[in-house]
Amino acid sequence: MAATQYKAFDFFKNIFIHAFLMIVTVSCLFPLFWMLRCSLMSNSTVLVDKSIIPQTINWENYYIAWTKGSFGTYFLNSVIYTVCVVFGIVVVSSLAAYAFSRLKFPGKDIIFNLFVAAMMIPLPGSFVPLYVLMTKLHLVNTRIGYILCMINVGLSLSILLLKTFFDKMPPDLEDAARIDGCSKLGIWRHVALPLARPALAVIVIYNSLNVWNEYILATLLLGERSLMPLQRGLEVFRGTYQTDYPVLMAGLTMTALPIIVIYLLMQKHIVKGLSSGAVVG
Amino acid sequence: MNSPKAKVFEIKGNLENFLFVLPALLIFSIFYIYPFFELINLALREWNGVDPVKTFIGFRNFLDMAQDTVWWNSIVHAGYITLIALTFQNALAFALALACDREIKMKNFYRVVFFIPPVLSEMVVGYIWQWILDPNMQNGQYVGVLNFILAKLGLLNLIHSWLSDPNTVLTCIAVIHSWKGFGWGFIMLLAGLQTIDKQLYEAAKVDGAGAWSTFMNVTVPMMLPVIMVVVILTILGSMQAFVLIISLVSQGLAGYTEVPVTEILGSMNGNKQFGYACAQAMVFGLILVVSSFLLKKVSDKMKQA
Q: What domains can you pick out in chain A, each with its CATH number?
């Protein structure tokens, strides 16, 4: 009797838990579904038709956003910035992390602690002196200026994650390569980097999300439309298409979709990176 | 090894090793360390961003700031958003993590879905929600889907101009901020829960502890370090949130939606007071550092107890 009662209680507890999880799931997905749905409607129907699936599907909004809304340009820019910044971060941070973990040079601990401290200290409004500096260097409205700034943004965390990884890696293979006459740079490139692939995956994804979604530096440094990435472009775009919700939603979908797809493909690495980030913090 | 030749060899090796960190150190010095000191330098000056002369005015920017009620209100606004994030967002994250920390069907599905809002940009989230909350009417029907559903459910007194009513705008912002952010806390707390030794729960059961007492005496103490990390990250993230506000209310609802970062941006871009903007950034940065430092101290104390 007591056992069946207990089972019944468990059964209702499970239903309750699933109901709770389902409600939150719907609240997470509904706004995205609504964005997608409205991006496929026409400007006249979107305001009055509230059916879940629209009667007529209208792909034209994507074309309008891509061409008239200059979304093609913004999209390409975002791809360029993301690829360049992530590549830069991988090279620069893995070189530094390898040296911090394996090589000897004076001032090593001080320099490493500097990077760690930079990660811990929040610097809101650092964009003010950064903007002043970039103006001085004539790097405002240049791709390279924005790329260098963004490399710096992701540097500290990437170095820290990679150094932790290198510290745990057994040095046997590197020793073997050294005995075979491989140079330090060769060992970094042909031994350490391939072995560090799991950590590099975390760094690539984390920084890709960061660059793709970055807004404030893009706004301050890139005033010309031809140089703007998606997040800044969206704002300009919204200014011109204020009342045209379907086209705006098409633009939002194009901005969000790549990141969602990459996330779904790589979600294991992201979760791993996040958990290790929690340990570091 | 002590021969001069070996010494030269060692120095050369050290120099070569240093070259590995040089690119990182250069970028870091130019784009982090220099701006850091320039921020302090400019905070003591009056400068419009164009003039070659940056007049040294000592602490006058800080004295002006003491009387700037809009500035202090902006910190209160950010504090309000942070308070809601700390309570509502983190309680939700913890409840979801507890619900998923068991043998349960579709665990991975939930985990993937809850982390979708955090990977979206604040721009995208803001614009989607603005459309959902649209207060306008067309042909006697509400355009925004939230008001439309409320009308269909007959909850006419709940229908609202969510983002243009001073009473609701900041709460809306805070709730949407929490919607975007709870997935972070959820993933971290779940990772923490899964490191707790299951034998502890068994032991508590044997001792006759109920669910609540097990939660308070086993789960919470074991989770304290992770909870502290989540709390500190929530505070830092919520206090500095501003892109969501720009995308939700664009020009802002004067007097109700200012937060420190938009104020700093306004001092810089709008009023062309670069010195004042830097002073604001300095004070705000100090507030954040001191509060997270104090929290860390408190959590260390609790760990010892």
A: 70-240 (1.10.3720.10)
